Amino acid sequence: WVVTAAHCTDGADGVTVYLGATDIKNDNEKGQQRIYTSKANIVVHANWDASTLSNDISLIKLPVAVVFNDLIQPATLPKMDGKYSTYEGDMVWASGWGRDSDAATSVSQYLRYIEVPVLKQSTCKTYYLGTVTDKMICIKSVDKKSTCNGDTGGPL
């Protein structure tokens, strides 16, 4: 299974999942796997709301087994320890092939990544009035660098 954003899969007839890729235009990149799956294998959260972005999560069931290697590994989730952590102040990694600036007209060919801090929920809510819930995580830009359009659905 692959976790992504509902707004990336909602209404899609199918998706191609890129595993171990750093160059999305290079079909022959060493270690890269591309797996296509149809809409029948896409599960969008039942309460996904495009107008509020609530429950913006989707699962993709891959039709074949993933071949793990040095570049492709399953995600390791943090332990819950019986309570939900806000991760406020923690440093996290975000990555994607999104635009490299607000002025860019196309996404990046190469995978980009950045380490950023998780914002306090109260701070985030002042920036995005009415759209941020306690089920969301916000990150802070560092030195005017952050994620951009096209990075959504990628790992954090």
Task: Provide structural commentary.
This protein is mainly beta and about 160 residues long. The chain has 2 domains: about 1-60, Beta Barrel (Thrombin, subunit H), CATH 2.40.10; about 80-155, Thrombin, subunit H (Beta Barrel), CATH 2.40.10. Helices cover about 5% and strands about 20% of the residues. The chain contains 2 helices and 7 strands. The chain is globular. The mean pLDDT is about 90. One of its GO terms (cellular component) is extracellular space.
Secondary-structure map:
Elements: E1 2-4, H1 6-9, E2 14-19, E3 33-38, E4 42-44, E5 58-60, E6 91-96, E7 112-117, H2 121-127
Antiparallel strand pairs: 1-5, 2-3, 4-5, 6-7
Short summary:
This protein is mainly beta. The chain has two helices and seven strands, in the order E-H-E-E-E-E-E-E-H. Residues 1-156 form the Peptidase S1 domain.
User: Could you name the CATH class of the largest domain?
Assistant: Mainly Beta
Low-confidence stretches: none
Order of helices and strands: EHEEEEEEH
| Major sheet: arrangement of strands | 1-5-4
CATH architecture descriptor name of the largest domain = Beta Barrel
CATH fold category name of the largest domain: Thrombin, subunit H
Strand content: 15-25%
User: Shape from CA axes?
Assistant: globular
Structural class: mainly beta
Major sheet details: 3 strands, antiparallel
Question: Would you identify the CATH H-level superfamily of the largest domain?
Answer: Trypsin-like serine proteases
> How many helices does DSSP assign?
2
The N- and C-terminal alpha carbons lie at a distance of 17 Å
Query: Helicity range of the residues?
Result: under 10%
Kindly provide the radius of gyration, computed on alpha-carbon positions and rounded to a whole number of angstroms. Answer: 16 Å
How many runs of DSSP E, i.e. beta strands?
7
Q: Roughly what is the average pLDDT, rounded to an integer?
A: 90
Number of domains: 2
